[in-house]
């Protein structure tokens, strides 16, 4: 019944997206080119596909050769316009993901601006030393024409079987994938069958120069958010944990915890959730219900809980976050990064 109600909305949404792309194709809406290489990291679906870990990997590598800046819209922030992210910025002002990246790479210029072209012009004026921009989540935007498009694809939600919003998770048309240069397929099984890789390559590759890489998320030992208050460090195998997350697709996060620990409760919130006093009270109640348990959250959520005075002491001493990165299957990370650099340098 619900699908029947949502189907007309999905048709209208798809028509709107198609018409917008036509306006760009006809030149009525303009895509702006810049005389600085721009790497856009995007996707065509809602929910977590790993854009932030990929941006971190690209920044980490490219910073060896370039003065890199990250440009993001700062999704979910309460501010508007152009802002430069500082290590002590509030996530409500600049967005959780840009703040996470700035704290990981303090030497990298990180700015937020919902109008990407305006943000690039301001960034170039204020930071003339920058000679490479990584643009977070701009594939669908189209007002900026990047030099390289890296598109993240979720292996657990193949685009060929997905539907447009709100029936499915597609926010853009699969036909637009012809504009991509690299596809990074995330959340692949550890032993992905060659036939599955071939099927995805056939679905994704529309132009001869496009490349596909298969990856999975690699989780590391949870770290205490407040080391000076932590009751125990490190966590032991089989430890009781409460999984706390406010991300697009929390399932892989919870599954990774369940491989090492005993997940006794889950507190799953919306993506980019703004933590409030009631959330802390809910955590305290779960901790009281499960004595001896610790709270493990994501890096993205941890950025929102670094203001010590806002977190009850009972939560602070058992609050951990789980670092992750993108691990390439068949050790192809170096191949991807070197080819990406070649494309940045080339014409």
Measured by DSSP, the beta-strand proportion falls in 15-25%
Largest sheet: 9 strands, mixed
CATH homologous superfamily grouping of the largest domain: P-loop containing nucleotide triphosphate hydrolases
Radius of gyration of CA atoms, rounded to a whole number:
21 Å
Give start-end ranges of low-pLDDT stretches.
none
As an assembly, this protein is single chain
How many extended strands? 14
CATH topology of the largest domain: Rossmann fold
Global mean pLDDT: 94
SS field, number of helical segments:
11
Report how far apart the termini are.
52 Å
> Quick one: overall form?
globular
Order of helices and strands: HEHEEHHEHEEEHEEEHEHEHHEEH
Query: For the record, what CATH class of the largest domain applies?
Result: Alpha Beta
Number of domains: 2
The structural class is alpha/beta
CATH architectural designation of the largest domain: 3-Layer(aba) Sandwich
Strand neighbour order, sheet with most strands: 3-4-2-5-1-6-7-8-14
Helix content: 25-40%
SSE layout:
Elements lengths: L1 H24 L12 E5 L8 H12 L5 E5 L10 E2 L6 H4 L1 H9 L4 E4 L3 H11 L5 E5 L11 E7 L27 E5 L7 H11 L6 E9 L3 E2 L15 E6 L5 H10 L1 E7 L8 H13 L4 E5 H4 L10 H4 L2 E4 L1 E5 L4 H13 L2
Parallel strand pairs: 1-5, 1-6, 2-4, 2-5, 6-7, 7-8, 10-11, 10-12, 12-13
Antiparallel strand pairs: 3-4, 8-14, 9-13
Structure explained in plain terms:
The protein has 347 residues and is of the alpha/beta class. Helix content is 33%, strand content 20%. The chain has helices at residues 2-25, 51-62, 91-94, 96-104, 116-126, 194-204, 251-260, 277-289, 299-302, 313-316, 333-345; strands at 38-42, 68-72, 83-84, 109-112, 132-136, 148-154, 182-186, 211-219, 223-224, 240-245, 262-268, 294-298, 319-322, 324-328. The strands form two sheets. The chain has a nine-stranded mixed β-sheet with strand order 3-4-2-5-1-6-7-8-14, with helices on both faces. A five-stranded mixed β-sheet has the order 9-13-12-10-11, sandwiched between helices. Strand 10, helix 7 and strand 11 form a beta-alpha-beta unit.
């Amino acid at each position: 019944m619900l699908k029947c109600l949502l189907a007309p909305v999905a048709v209208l949404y798809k028509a709107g997206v198609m018409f917008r792309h036509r306006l760009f194709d006809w030149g009525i809406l303009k895509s702006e080119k810049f005389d600085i290489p721009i790497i856009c990291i995007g996707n065509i679906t809602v929910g977590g596909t790993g854009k932030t870990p990929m941006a971190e990997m690209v920044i980490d590598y490219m910073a060896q050769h370039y003065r890199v800046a990250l440009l993001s819209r700062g999704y979910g922030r309460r501010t508007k316009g152009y802002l430069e992210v500082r290590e002590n910025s509030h996530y409500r002002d600049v967005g959780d993901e840009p703040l996470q990246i700035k704290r990981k790479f303090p030497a990298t210029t990180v700015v937020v601006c919902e109008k990407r072209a305006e943000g690039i012009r301001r960034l170039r004026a204020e930071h003339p030393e920058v000679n490479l921009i990584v643009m977070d989540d701009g594939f669908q935007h189209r007002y900026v024409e990047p030099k390289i498009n890296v598109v993240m694809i979720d292996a657990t939600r193949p685009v060929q079987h997905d539907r447009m919003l709100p029936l499915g998770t597609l926010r853009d048309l699969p036909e637009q994938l012809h504009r991509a240069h690299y596809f990074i397929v995330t959340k692949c099984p550890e032993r992905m069958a060659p036939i599955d890789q071939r099927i995805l390559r056939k679905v994704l590759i529309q132009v001869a120069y496009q490349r596909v890489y298969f990856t999975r998320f690699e989780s590391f030992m949870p770290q205490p958010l407040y080391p000076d208050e932590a009751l125990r460090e490190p966590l032991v195998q089989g430890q009781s944990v409460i999984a706390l997350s406010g991300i697009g697709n929390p399932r892989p996060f919870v599954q990774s915890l369940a491989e090492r620990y005993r997940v006794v409760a889950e507190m799953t919130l919306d993506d980019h959730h703004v933590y409030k006093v009631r959330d802390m009270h809910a955590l305290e109640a779960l901790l009281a219900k499960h004595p001896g348990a610790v709270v493990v959250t994501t890096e993205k959520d941890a950025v929102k809980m670094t203001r010590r005075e806002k977190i009850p002491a009972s939560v602070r001493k058992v609050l951990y976050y789980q670092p992750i990165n993108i691990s390439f299957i068949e050790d192809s990370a170096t191949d991807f990064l070197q080819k990406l650099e070649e494309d940045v340098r080339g014409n």
